[in-house]
Every structure is written in structure tokens, then in C-alpha cells.
Amino acid sequence: MSQRIYFRVHGTVQGVNFRYFTQKKATEAGITGWVEGEAQGSPDALKQFLKDIDRGPTHARVVQLDKEDREVKEGEAKFEVRA
């Protein structure tokens, strides 16, 4: 069963490779969606994904992570970095 969330990360996340870190963690967990936007996958995969992005890459400093549930989307195949 899939679940979809909207997420937004606050803190030092610009210029520290955060978007690509997030994409890597999503892909490893089998999550689809897009960076600083939405993620979809199993509840367990999303739980781990949120833990990973709350830590962020080495030079990031996450101070807040917001999330809210969204409607599941069919046919999404990957997790994208959008500008």
C-alpha cells in the first residue's frame, strides 16, 4: 500500500547538495516524487526517507521538516530533482 506526502525542509539546505542527497535516498528506498515537494512509497520507506532528509547531507543543517498527507498518484516512475 502506497502513501504520499508533501514535505518541505527548512534550514541550511542550499548549496550543500541537498536536492541530490534527497533524490539518492528516495531512489534507494523505492520512493517516487520530487524534491522539496512530494514523495510516495510504502509507509516504512517514507518513515526512513524522512529520517534521512531530516539529517541531510554532511554540510546541511535541517532545523524543521514539515509534512502533510497527499493523495496517491498512479503511474509515477521515479523521484526527480526539479529546479
From TrEMBL:
Gene3D superfamilies xrefs: 3.30.70.100
Coiled coil ranges: none
This protein's name: Acylphosphatase-like domain-containing protein
GO molecular function terms listed in the Swiss-Prot or TrEMBL record: acylphosphatase activity
Organism domain of life: Eukaryota
A Pfam match: Acylphosphatase
Family note: Belongs to the acylphosphatase family.
Ranges of residues in domain Acylphosphatase-like: 4-83
